């Protein structure tokens, strides 16, 4: 297996979220809008401007964070406490601190960045878009 990549669904703010994630992780953000897809002329103008696919390479370039927006009438229920976290494994403690500070800003901290019995730095939190993250620097 080459990689496992999380795919997030947003209700109209995928571009905002991924611009934010790009500011945290760097990398080249790719955005494809619904207007660039076949049969887009059958969609509403609002839906045409939404993100059909976003891709942001992270880590070694083999891992990607991906997403799209739902379209009118197909909005997804985004549970506030979904059953997953995206785990980031930083290269060092300084990188762990930097990622934690950026991603947790305006979010909800569940467990602040700290030393634990299993990691030198560990944190659990939701970002301002409701996406849940773990920082795990061993």
Number of domains: 2
Relative strand content: 25-35%
Report the count of strand segments.
8
Low-confidence stretches: none
Assign the CATH topology of the largest domain.
2,3-Dihydroxybiphenyl 1,2-Dioxygenase, domain 1
Order of secondary-structure elements = EHEHEEEHEEE
Which strand order do you get reading across the main beta sheet?
1-4-3-2
Kindly name the structural category.
alpha/beta
Please state the overall shape, judged from the principal axes of the Cα atoms. elongated
* Largest beta-sheet characterization: 4 strands, mixed
| CATH architecture title of the largest domain | Roll
How widely separated are the two ends? 24 Å
Helical content, roughly? Answer: 10-25%
Q: Whole-number radius of gyration?
A: 16 Å
**Average pLDDT number:** 88
Helices, by number, come to 3
Can you say what the CATH homologous superfamily of the largest domain is?
2,3-Dihydroxybiphenyl 1,2-Dioxygenase, domain 1
| CATH top level label of the largest domain | Alpha Beta
